[in-house]
Design brief:
Blueprint (H helix, E strand, L loop, with lengths): L1 E4 L12 H10 L4 E4 L10 H14 L3 E6 L8 H7 L2 E7 L1 H7 L2 H14 L3 E4 L3 H5 L10 H4 L2 H18 L3 E4 L4 H10 L4 E4 L1 H5 L2 H7 L15 H12 L5 E2 L28 H10 L5 H16 L13 E5 L4 E2 L18 E2 L2 E7 L2 E5 L6 H12 L2
Helix pairs in contact: 8-9
Length: about 375
C-alpha cells in the first residue's frame, strides 16, 4: 500500500490518469493508495472532491483514499470535505502556506482539523527559509536552494502546533535523520514516511547517472551522500515506519525545461517494492522491516483492512524472489517512462497482483503459464 501518489487526471491526464496510475500501481504490486489533491483544478472544493471520487470510481477499482487540498480561505470547509469522502488534508505545500497567510494560516488550519477530526499530511519545508536563498539557481544547487534548514524549521513548527492543538499529523517524504529524531523525541503521535529515492540516491549520484538533470529534481531535494546513508541506516534498523513512493509523473518534455521551469517529481510506483525487497534479498534488512513499511503501517494509516480475509475477495501480491533484472522505465505501465533508477539491478520482481479476488496484473517473464492457470483456477473456485 502506498499512502502518497499523484494520479493526476483531469487537465493533467497527459501526465497520468486514474487508469494508467492503476496499471502502474498493480505492476508495482500495490492494491491500495492515498491520492493527492494537487490536480488541475486542485481538489479544494467539496464539489470537485465529489467529482473526483465519482470519476475515479468509474476508472479504477483500487482501494483508494482521497486527500483534500488545503483550503485557501475558511478552513471550516474541512467538515463538509470529511463528510463527503475526504480522508485527510494534504499534502500541504510550503508555497500554499506562504500564499495563504503563513504561520497564521497554519494555526487556523491545524485548529480546525483537530476540531473536525481530519488528519493533515504535511510537506515539511519552511517557505520563508526557502525564499531567503540568493545563490545560483540550477539543478546542481537544488539541495542548497531548498536546504536542510527549511525542513528542520518546519518540523519544529509542526511539533509545536501538534502540542498546542492535538491535530493528527503525518509528515511526508522526510529527508533528514534529524527530522526523524525530533519527532521521536517529541513523544507525540506524529507519523511520517520516507521515500526510496531519498534513501537510495544522493543528489550527486543521481545527477551523475541520470539522462536528464530534471529527472533528479524532487521536492524536498535529494540530499548529500552522508545524509542518504544515515537515512537508509535508519530504515534498515526499523526506525522508518512507512515508505511511500511519492509517485509524481510528468511528461518527458516537461523534464527538458530549465531548472526553474522543470516540475519536481520522481516516478516510483513500479520501483519501490523491488528496490526495498532487494535490500532484504541482499541481507541489509529483514523481510518484516520491509513489509511493515509498505504494507502493515500504510494499511493502518489508510484505515484499510485488506489482504486475505475470511469471507472477502483476496488482495494479494505475488513476488518472484529469484528474478534479477535491471529497471527499465520504458516498460513502465505509468505514462511517465523515465526514472533516475534506470539501470539499477534488483533481485526481485512482481510476478502477479490479485485485486478483489481477480488476477489484475501478470508480470510477463516473472511467472510461468502453469502458475498463472493455477492461480486463475483457484480464484474461480472462490
Amino acid at each position: 500500500m502506498d499512502i502518497h501518489v499523484h494520479f493526476r487526471d483531469f487537465e493533467l491526464s497527459y501526465k497520468e490518469d486514474a487508469v494508467s496510475g492503476t496499471q502502474a500501481a498493480l505492476a508495482g504490486g500495490y492494491v491500495a493508495v492515498g491520492d493527492m489533491p494537487n490536480t488541475k483544478p486542485p481538489i479544494k472544493t467539496v464539489e470537485l472532491l465529489r467529482r473526483k471520487i465519482e470519476e475515479f470510481g468509474r476508472k479504477t477499482n483500487l482501494h483508494i483514499r482521497h486527500y483534500f487540498g488545503a483550503p485557501p480561505q475558511d478552513p471550516s470547509i474541512l467538515k463538509d470535505a470529511l463528510i463527503n469522502g475526504a480522508y485527510a488534508v494534504g499534502e500541504v505545500l510550503p508555497e500554499e502556506v506562504l500564499d495563504y497567510g503563513g504561520d497564521q494560516y497554519l494555526e487556523a488550519l491545524f485548529r480546525e482539523a483537530a476540531r473536525v477530526g481530519i488528519p493533515i499530511v504535511m510537506h515539511c519545508e519552511d517557505p520563508v527559509i526557502i525564499n531567503q536563498y540568493s545563490g545560483p539557481r540550477d539543478f546542481e544547487h537544488h539541495n542548497a536552494i531548498r536546504g536542510p534548514r527549511a525542513e528542520l524549521a518546519c518540523v519544529h513548527n509542526i511539533i509545536k502546533l501538534v502540542y498546542r492543538y492535538g491535530t493528527k499529523v503525518h509528515m511526508t517524504h522526510l529527508t533528514l535523520p534529524q527530522s526523524i529524531s525530533m519527532i521521536r523525541l517529541s513523544g507525540l503521535d506524529i507519523t511520517f514516511d520516507v521515500t526510496p529515492h531519498h534513501m537510495l540516491l544522493s543528489q550527486e549520484e543521481c545527477l551523475a547517472r541520470a539522462e536528464k538533470p530534471a529527472y533528479c529534481k524532487v521536492n524536498p531535494p535529494l540530499r548529500d551522500e552522508t545524509t542518504r546513508r544515515e537515512l537508509l541506516t535508519m530504515f534498515v534498523r526499523g526506525e522508518v515506519p512507512i515508505v511511500a513512493s511519492d509517485h509524481a509523473p510528468h511528461a518527458d518534455w516537461e523534464k527538458d525545461r530549465p531548472y526553474d521551469e522543470a516540475p519536481p517529481g520522481i516516478v516510483g510506483l513500479e520501483t519501490t517494492a523491488p528496490l526495498l525487497l532487494t535490500l532484504w534479498r541482499r541481507g541489509f534488512t529483514d523481510l518484516g522491516t520491509v513489509m511493515r513499511a509498505i504494507q502493515e503501517r500504510p494499511a493502518k494509516f489508510l484505515g484499510l483492512n485488506v489482504g486475505i480475509r475470511q469471507g472477502f475477495c483476496a488482495d494479494l501480491t505475488i513476488i518472484n524472489t529469484k528474478a534479477r533484472h535491471r529497471i527499465e522505465p520504458e516498460r513502465f505501465r505509468s505514462k511517465a517512462k523515465f526514472s533516475p533508477f534506470k539501470g539499477f539491478e534488483v533481485d526481485v520482481a512482481v510476478a502477479a497482483t490479485i485485486l478483489h479476488g481477480k488476477l489484475a496484473y501478470i508480470g510477463e517473464g516473472y511467472i510461468d503459464e502453469t502458475t498463472v492457470k493455477t492461480l486463475e483456477n483457484a480464484l474461480q473456485g472462490g
